[in-house]
Amino acid sequence: MPELPEVETVCRTIAPYVVGRRVLAVDVRERRLRRPIALDFAQRLAGRTVRGVARRAKYVLLDVGDGLRWVVHLGMSGRFCVGDPPADLPHVHVLVELEGGVRLYFRDPRRFGLMMLSADDADLGVLGVEPLGAEFTADLLWSLARRHRRAAVKSLLMDGRRIVGVGNIYANEALHHAGIRPGRRCGKVTRAELARLASAVRMVLERAIASRGSSLLDYRDADGNAGEFQRMLHVYERGGEPCRACAAPIRRQVICGRGTFYCPRCQR
């Protein structure tokens, strides 16, 4: 699933193409996504001008005026791309034409993504703080850890109701950089360790964004380029391989149903 760095990369990639341009036509070919695309979606979007592009959690938000946002979620396998899709490309569900010959298309083989127009934050669900925002601090992590003492620290990082966008890849990597085992109970993690973790989360996400995200499966940015951060992974999907810091074999376990990787020597 595209995580925060991948979605941020898509936002930054499409912004130069779409900001200031009016939507000329919308072709909805398949409505059956995670939430069905509204019957009046194309009619309501056509004629509006994109005023800005932003990200909230794993949502792409395009400001189309009057307090309305064109909301896109990539789900598990979605792509939001600039250009015309190849004629034989399957699973292209929405095509949008803008002024200046700019075209966008949304492709989602698994149909877990969504596309809608919304003026209500509630449509995005219950969302926690942004890990790259000013609210994400060591004090916040300490407060959350005190309230969720029995939860695994990795589970807390990935709880989107508390902290948004830190998916499985980046939770694994941040915990390794902070020297904390993913399965440790929050109540056993010290304030100093949580301060390291807060810094590690921010550092890992910023590095991943600078590398255009991670292309482990089929993720590409809006220009069709693969990410590069998978080349820098220290533990994720490296079970049995030597730790880049100490050479101990990386171990794998399952936490909350997700594959979890850590170094038994570097992480305590």
Largest beta-sheet characterization: 4 strands, antiparallel
Total count of domains:
2
Task: Could you tell me the CATH topology label of the largest domain.
Answer: Helicase, Ruva Protein, domain 3
Order of helices and strands: HEHEEEEEEEHHHHEE
Cα distance spanning the termini: 28 Å
Mean pLDDT: 95
What is the structure about, briefly put?
The protein has 268 residues and is α+β, with helices and mostly antiparallel strands. The protein has helices at 4-18, 41-45, 138-147, 153-157, 168-178, 191-210, and strands at 23-28, 52-56, 59-63, 69-73, 79-82, 92-98, 103-107, 114-118, 251-255, 258-262. 25% of the residues lie in helices and 19% in strands.
Topology (SSEs and partners):
Blueprint: H1 4-18, E1 23-28, H2 41-45, E2 52-56, E3 59-63, E4 69-73, E5 79-82, E6 92-98, E7 103-107, E8 114-118, H3 138-147, H4 153-157, H5 168-178, H6 191-210, E9 251-255, E10 258-262
Antiparallel strand pairs: 1-6, 2-3, 3-4, 4-8, 5-7, 6-7, 9-10
Helix pairs in contact: 1-6, 3-6, 5-6
Write a concise keyword list for the protein shown above.
268 residues, alpha+beta, N-terminal domain of MutM-like DNA repair proteins, Helicase, Ruva Protein, domain 3, 2 domains, four-stranded antiparallel sheet, 6 helices, 10 strands, elongated
